[in-house]
Amino acid sequence: MQRxxxxxxxxxxxxxxxxxxxxxxxxxxxxxxxxxxxxxxLAGIRAKSVLEETRAAAARYLGVRxxxxxxxxxxxxxxxxxxxxxxxEGVSRIRSGDASRTVLLYGATEHKAVPEALRHWNQxxxxxxxxxxxxxxxxxxxxxSDLSNQLSTALLVCTxxxxxxxxxxxxxxxxERIIRSHxxxxxxxxxxxxxxxxxxIHYSQVSIDYAPFSGHKLYAPKGTGLLYVRxxxxxxxxxxxxxQEKGLRSGTENLPGVAAMGxxxxxxxxxxxxxxxVGSFCSEAELFEYRSLLKNALLxxxxxxxxxxxxxVSIPTTLNFAVPGLxxxxxxxxxxxxxxxxxxxxxxxxxxxxxxxxxxxxxxxxDPWRSEGAVRLSWGLATSQEEIxxxxxxxxxxxxxxxxxxxxxxxxxxxxxxxxxxxxLQLRAGGANTWILVGAKASQCVIIDPLPELTxxxxxFVTCQKLEVLGVLDTHSHADHESSRSxxxxxxxxxxxEVPSTPNLLGWPENHSALTSIEIRGRTYxxxxxxxxxxxxxxxxxxVPTPGHTSDSQSYLWMSRGSTYPTFDLLEVDALFCxxxxxxxxxxxxxxxxxxxxxxxxxxxxxxxxxxxRTVVCPAHDYENTFATSWGAEKSSPQSLxxxxxxxxxxxxxxxxxxxxxxxxxxxxxxxxxxPKDSGAQVLCGVVSAVSASLQVNQIASGGLPxxxxxxxxxxxxxxxxxxxxxxxxxxxxxxxxxxxxxNVPLSRFVNFSSEILKELQEQGELPPMVFLCRSGNRxxxxxxxxxxxxxxxxxxLEGGFALNT
Length: 806
Ligand code: PLP
Hints:
- The chain is built from 25 helices and 31 strands.
- Helix 6 links the parallel strand 5 and strand 6.
- About 35% of the residues lie in helices and about 20% in strands.
- The longest helix has 21 residues, at about 40-60.
- The strands form eight sheets. Strands 18-19-20-21-22-25-26 form a seven-stranded mixed beta sheet. Strands 27-31-30-28-29 form a five-stranded parallel beta sheet, covered by helices on one side.
- The termini are close together.
- With about 800 residues, it is of the alpha/beta class.
- The structure holds pyridoxal-5'-phosphate.
- Pyridoxal-5'-phosphate binds next to helix 3.
- Pyridoxal-5'-phosphate binds near residues 111, 160, 191, 193 and 194.
């Protein structure tokens, strides 16, 4: 697998590629100077000279003595060695009767390697010290009065030269004045990882005691680094043995890595003297130019973007920004699809649960949305003008794609027409679902179970699609979260969208021309009529009371006319929005004050009367990335109490169901799994089973897609990424060899697809093979699991997704 030459890498604060100069040095050492620097023969002497030449070059560039530098495996190791040494010094002072300095201070925005090392070594050494954070101001710079106030008892102060998330640099001269007002008895560590090559620091002119550096952040391979230790500063080795590095860090040196660092330092020395590009490295002026080009591009593509740091106090290689209404996940996905590799401002791992926050931006006091939505662009000395130009174009493409899929409302800069959406859209937050049902013909929608976290997203969708909101409905009064129904209605009205008023607590409209009633199996129910984009096709949303989970629980049935005889003149229920009555693999709890498990039996039996096995069931929660289940799958689920409820026709079997339900709910309240077989089940609004996670899935091994396509020409190829990501993929033909077209079925719209597939399966008796794709193979795996749960066995996922197959 080769690096895509079109890839735009703007994540240099995470790591960098290895430049040709460093690669050549590695190669030469591996082939010619491969001796052990500790050997006294010729090969050893030559190897040793590589080590010492690198040390000398680094010392010249950093302005320090060569013997003050220790080679390490990276900055994390350097930080451990420094912290351990400082603490050992503290312990020996305490032992000799001086317990005046027992506080370990670190800046609130430090990389986590620093506070973690302080806590770890403090614990290992018997918790003799107290670890405390020093506040930063809104610029991200150390609050000097907080530092001054805490210094009188400090043994060690850890600050950073430049921050990895924001690029904010510290005023080291000002910090030195404050720290040294306490003399040399305070030790000072400056994490210099992100400053190397970007900030001119002459280390022997500032009284820094320890400065760790990392090779892989500056175009050397991973596993390389340096620790500067000021002459006279205490140092205690952690690695002992062969006595390398003057006994301070035993272990045979990573000579190829050291040689690579040597090449980088020699380039840095030349670059410092020149205003021109030197070898792989651009000039400092170019770094500043890149920043202003990228910043302008971001502001024109996302006019409401907010930047985390001021240019005046940050290195010219980092931009950290957030856009109102967009999560970091949205931005990362769309940037990645546009070929730009960037990072979230914080550890970003999932679209379920609370959005992760950045401790750096939180410490700076930025609003939570900025911390949750932060994205970092970082580049470096080896980034080219051409790459920056391509990045600018990609930023505009990403912004347009987000607009056309209604993730954001178009700015004036782009007069995009967004595509009209028709059908069911699923939005998720914290394991809960909000459903939006849209009839595109008359541009009408209903929103079911709105979650407060999704208010902005819902408003954007409605505004962008120019929809009339027929109703904002709840399925019941929720126990685990407050409904944001009235808040959403109020916010919609602020932007000019009036929702029909209702006396009904759960939001069913009172007066609207779309209101009608429908008779199903001899009973009449209130309904809303939708016109879909399919010429003339109608859909109805029907309200059916289904008490049980709570006394006010309602189900909403999404119905259409059958398409084949004998059902074409009958209404069929395509989807059921049932709140917490049913969850994938189990039933909702009935141990709330207003719950009633006998009423739940009647509700389930009524639904069984109205639904068919292929009805897609859309609950209010999706703890397991199931998206939706089906009535048939639930009836045959061995863990679920649905089947016992459906066959509980006499008093005895009903009483048995009620008892069993009570037992299950008690286990849920105690946080225990329902059934010993059902390990991994989650608790909250009801039982869900982890069964889908344990299913064997059909997987195409990475690299195996071309052979699979040749062998299975009838296969349907389906991209499950969101439309804005799909739209940005440019090389489908080279990916699929030109043989297949690709269907886009985003997971947020998967319910529509599941419903169509179940219909097709019912009508045709079998389905053609389908292969699902996404970026990493994670979302396509979820799609295949979800379909397998519904009884579809002809779905395949491509292991490693586009990442390992292009
Ligand atoms: N300190 C800072 C500021 C960093 O950005 C990093 C890496 O992200 C580290 C320390 C750890 O460096 P290494 O990966 O070399 O252990």
